[in-house]
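pasting for the record
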Amino acid sequence: MNGKALAVLGCSLLLLVVAECQEKEKPHKATEKKAMKELKANELKPPKAAGQRRQQAAAKALKAKARGKPTAPPSPVQPPASILTRVVARGQFQKVPDALTLAAGDTLELRCRGRSVRWRFPAYLQDEEEGRLRIKHFDRYSQLVVVNAAAADTGEYSCWSFQCRDSECRAGEDRMGKAFIFFTDPQELFVPTEDYYEVVQLRTNHPTLLPCQVTSPLAQVTLHREFPPEEVAVDGVDISYDVKRGFVIHRPRPSYAGSLFCMAGLDGVRQISTKYMLIYINYPSSAPKPTVSASAATVRVGENFNVTCTVFGEPEVAVDFTWEYPGQQIGRPPYVRERADLARRGGQVQQESESILYVDEARTIDEGLYTCTATNLQGTTAVSTRVRILPATPAPSGARSG
């Protein structure tokens, strides 16, 4: 092969190598070009603000709620812990429940956490003279001890502490504790009282309590009428029973008046309570609202006048009237007339009570303020009016005296 042929062959091989290299570089350049485009695009987009991220998070939460995604329930508010505890043994304490049953003869020891503690306990212990009730105050708590407890000690025990800063103390609403404690006695099913009969008023639209408290919450208690002897129905609406209080008459009626008593039974023992003499009173719903007016605001000496005081109220509700008037200064005796009649007023039947004060032959001393005071079982109200006294009418001119 001559030299010219060898040169042509070398050039051909060189062109083939160059072409292959160009083919390999094409994908690399395309990838590089794409990466450059993405980089430029990212450089043009600004970063997301924190507010936009919060808005997107809120939108996601709303979408999750719309799909019914369960959310965590709010944590319940825990009631404040009671400050009242019971000492059951040396170094052992117990939270006092709402109601606690102990046996007569036991010792009750309660502790109330806080400073400047005050106690409230059954009235029977307030007059205790045998030293069975002991109260001691310490730096961080107060102690109440009842030794040799009796059935009469049954009732509510409560305490409260004062939150003191420097010299000022105030009662804390969440710093209170109370419990009802029964002291059972097989010989005393009812809390003893000194009265054999107790008078109880049945007031209109006012609940009435028959306080026949039992010493055991297990006692079966019924309500009875003495004359005629019968059991009184307890339906929970007109009359209900509370083991801590007794029977409550929610809707007093005249038919409930008379002698009633409670009967308790437990373990074959039956006892009756104090007898309650119920007296029905048509109790007013509010204090009287009197109005007062004089027959004349101006009166001449020697003339007669009167002042009227009027009260409209519920039927059969008694109203008492009293007067204050200028003539009292010289002991001028009043003449008063009173009446009470039923009258229809505003479509309702009401009782019209009226008191009229008469003043005959007016004098100068009778000038002044006339005050009427009306009183019923609910309260007292006073109203006033003023009367002016003028000199007597002069005699006509030219008239001859007899």
